[in-house]
Design a protein that fits this description.
139 residues; mainly alpha; 3-stranded antiparallel β-sheet; elongated
C-alpha cells in the first residue's frame, strides 16, 4: 500500500471510530500500532489532532476508564479524506465504455479543479471565496 493510500486508510479509520463513539475521538484501544505511528505523521501535517490532557480527562470520565491517548481529524483531515475518496478507483477501459459513455482524459490539475467543484459544499475548509464559482464557469 502506498503511503498516500495508507494515510487515507488511517484517516478513514479515525473518522469511522470517532463517529461511532459519538464524541468524535478515536481512543487508545481502537487502533492498531501501525495506525498509531501513522497518526503521529498525520498530526505533523495538521490532518489529525491529538487530545490534550484536559480532553483526555473528559474522555476518561465519559468512558469510565483512563484514556491515555485519543485523536480526531482536523477540518483539513476531513477535507483530505473527502478529496481522497473522490478519486476514481478503477480505470475505465474501452470495453467498459457503454453506449452512452465517452472516455475523456484530463490532466491532474483539471481533475483537481473538478473535485474542488464537486466537493465545495462538503469541505470543512471551503475553497477561497469565488473559487468554486470560477471553476464551475470555466470551460
Amino acid at each position: 500500500m502506498r503511503s498516500g493510500e495508507r494515510a487515507l486508510s488511517v484517516l478513514e479509520a479515525l473518522r469511522e471510530r470517532g463517529e461511532a463513539a459519538g464524541h468524535g475521538w478515536t481512543l487508545d484501544t481502537e487502533l492498531l500500532p501501525p495506525h498509531l505511528q501513522q497518526v503521529n505523521a498525520l498530526e505533523n501535517q495538521a490532518l489529525v489532532e491529538l487530545a490534550s490532557k484536559e480532553d483526555r480527562a473528559e474522555l476518561s470520565a465519559l468512558e469510565g476508564r483512563p484514556v491515555r491517548w485519543a485523536a480526531r481529524l482536523t477540518p483539513y483531515g476531513h477535507d483530505t479524506l473527502a478529496y481522497g475518496q473522490s478519486r476514481p478507483r478503477a480505470e475505465l477501459s474501452s470495453g467498459n465504455a457503454g453506449l452512452n459513455r465517452q472516455l475523456v482524459e484530463l490532466i491532474p490539475s483539471q481533475m483537481a479543479a473538478l473535485r474542488v467543484r464537486d466537493l465545495a459544499d462538503q469541505l470543512r475548509m471551503p475553497p477561497a471565496d469565488g473559487l468554486a464559482e470560477q471553476v464551475r464557469a470555466a470551460s
